[in-house]
């Protein structure tokens, strides 16, 4: 666990407030203006990094109880319209506010041999922010965005996602290579993820590069293969000890687990229920993570207590996009599960990138591309094991699960791929954006959808719309990119989203 509480109690709150008030703005023009009123020699880049990480990994964390969680199969709500625009937080503005600050760290540490690790870590984090941003929207301002005040471009062009990905892969390669364990130790305690551990940041950079390389497998298989092949001899995450996460704190409301805050603010009543997809994946194979991820339905709890019989406990998820009284009445609130107690505490490790994701990525690379010396099944088992261990599941229970049919890859390549990606979806929980992104890339796991139509024809969105302000403030470039991508619609596919089999039909029935 990171010493989050100690870190934030030592931060100069007024300094951070000043930086935030200047960096986070509603005006797009200020995306490229000087993010501080301090001179460069007065600015502590460590405080700036802490600010970025706190906002990125806590404040802007897309919980599984969000519309992105709906798209990943993690949750479903009776009160929203998941196939309509207007239900999204400002991922665009929030990302660029963080990019301003992280880019300032990069500029302030450039060409300084004593700050080589700080410079590299900031560049790795900048790639992480852009990766999430471009995966959500597609083409975004990149080469002309967040420039220094001397080179400000108030209306930056939108770069293609393909060009952004190529540059991000290169940036990660260079940043990982420049990290120097013999140089100064980086950011130390100001780094909420790794505490300045250079070796772990190198593994993170390579593992993030693996995520990016696999993501382009359907749009540019040769690029994916070349990048993954080069990573097989690099330092990747090797165990849960290398996991990237930020631990929340209960000292201040803004430092607490966002799920906990959401529950408290709603008087213990959650509009978002557990999704049918994640519940079915766990329940159908008697997965020990089921009772960790979800609570039994309220009605079954009452029955079990009245009869003193725990076997009466039932777990049930809600499908996405229910429409009409028949569908809705088939899934009443008291017969549905909510998120489990594990995720309801104020202090929680919020995942950034875990070892289990690396394992499933290498399993897929072996299965589909034939890359690596280990069998896909070995990596598959390692991914399941690593994720279960995160939740304190014992070795005997893990071994028993792996001895069942789901614990071994079998069948056709397509069937094995569905196994890998279904388990990867579970392992990515509660990382909603990555769960949705992997579903868009692969179509797995299969998600059951009701009769709601919305703006997408009753399908899960392939991206989200650019903010309305872009059409007003950066109108010429907004019009150009909208025409280039085929329209600023929820159904417009991003560059890497070219798997022609997606979405796969779910064999179930809404009223079963």
What is the structure about, briefly put?
By secondary structure, this protein is mainly alpha-helical. Helix content is 48%, strand content 4%. It has a two-stranded antiparallel ribbon. The protein has a two-stranded antiparallel sheet with strand order 2-3.
Bin the strand percentage. under 5%
Widest beta sheet: strand line-up: 1-5
Described by strand count, sense and barrel closure, the largest sheet is: 2 strands, antiparallel
Our count of helices gives 21
Q: Stretches where pLDDT falls below 50 for ≥5 residues?
A: 1-31, 33-37
- Care to count the β-strands? 6
| Global mean pLDDT | 91
How far is it from the N-terminal to the C-terminal residue, by CA? 43 Å
SS-based class = mainly alpha
- C-alpha geometry: globular
> What gyration radius follows from the Cα positions, in whole Å?
23 Å
| Helix content range | 40-55%
List the secondary-structure elements in sequence, H or E: HHHHEHHEEHHHEHEHHHHEHHHHHHH
């Amino acid at each position: 666990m990171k010493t989050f509480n100690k870190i934030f109690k030592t931060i100069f709150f007024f300094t951070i407030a000043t930086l935030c008030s200047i960096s986070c703005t509603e005006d797009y023009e200020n995306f490229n203006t000087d993010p501080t009123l301090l001179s460069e020699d007065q600015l502590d880049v460590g405080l700036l990094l802490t600010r970025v990480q706190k906002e990125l990994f806590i404040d802007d964390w897309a919980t599984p109880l969000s519309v992105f969680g709906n798209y990943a199969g993690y949750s479903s709500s009776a009160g929203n319209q998941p196939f309509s625009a207007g239900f999204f937080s400002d991922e665009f503005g929030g990302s660029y506010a963080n990019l301003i600050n992280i880019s300032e760290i990069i500029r302030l540490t450039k060409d300084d041999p004593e700050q080589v690790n700080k410079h590299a870590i900031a560049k790795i984090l900048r790639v992480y922010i852009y990766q999430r941003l471009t995966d959500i929207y597609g083409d975004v301002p990149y080469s002309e965005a967040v420039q220094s005040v001397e080179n400000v471009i108030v209306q930056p062009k939108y770069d293609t996602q393909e060009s952004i990905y190529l540059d991000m892969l290169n940036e990660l390669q260079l940043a990982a290579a420049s990290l120097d364990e013999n140089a100064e130790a980086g950011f130390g305690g100001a780094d909420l993820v790794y505490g300045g551990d250079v070796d772990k940041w190198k593994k993170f950079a390579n593992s993030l590069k693996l995520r990016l390389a696999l993501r382009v497998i359907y749009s540019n298989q040769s690029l994916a293969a070349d990048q993954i092949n080069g990573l097989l001899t690099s330092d990747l995450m090797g165990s849960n000890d290398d996991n990237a996460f930020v631990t929340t704190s209960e000292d201040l409301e803004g430092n607490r687990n966002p799920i906990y805050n959401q529950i408290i603010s709603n008087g213990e009543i959650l509009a978002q229920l557990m999704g049918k997809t994640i519940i079915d994946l766990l329940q159908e194979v008697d997965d020990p993570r089921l009772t960790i991820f979800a609570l039994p339905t309220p009605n079954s709890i009452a029955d079990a207590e009245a009869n003193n019989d725990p076997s009466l406990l039932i777990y049930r998820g809600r499908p996405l996009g229910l429409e009409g009284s028949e569908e809705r009445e088939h899934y009443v609130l008291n017969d549905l599960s909510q998120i489990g107690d594990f995720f309801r505490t104020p202090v929680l490790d919020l995942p950034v990138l875990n070892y289990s994701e690396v394992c499933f990525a290498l399993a897929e690379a072996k299965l589909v591309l034939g890359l690596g010396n280990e069998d896909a099944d070995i990596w598959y088992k390692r991914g399941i094991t690593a994720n279960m261990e995160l939740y304190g599941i014992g070795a005997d229970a893990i071994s028993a699960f792996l001895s069942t049919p789901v614990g071994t890859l079998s069948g056709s390549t397509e069937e094995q791929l569905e196994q890998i990606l279904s388990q990867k979806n579970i392992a990515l929980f509660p990382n909603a954006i990555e769960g949705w992104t992997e579903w868009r890339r692969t179509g797995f796991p299969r998600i059951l959808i009701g009769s709601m139509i919305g703006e997408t024809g009753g399908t899960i969105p392939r991206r989200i719309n650019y903010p309305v302000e872009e059409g007003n403030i950066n109108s010429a470039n907004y019009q150009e990119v909208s025409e280039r991508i085929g329209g600023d619609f929820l159904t417009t596919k991003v560059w890497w989203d070219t798997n022609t089999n997606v979405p796969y039909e779910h064999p179930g029935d809404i009223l079963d």
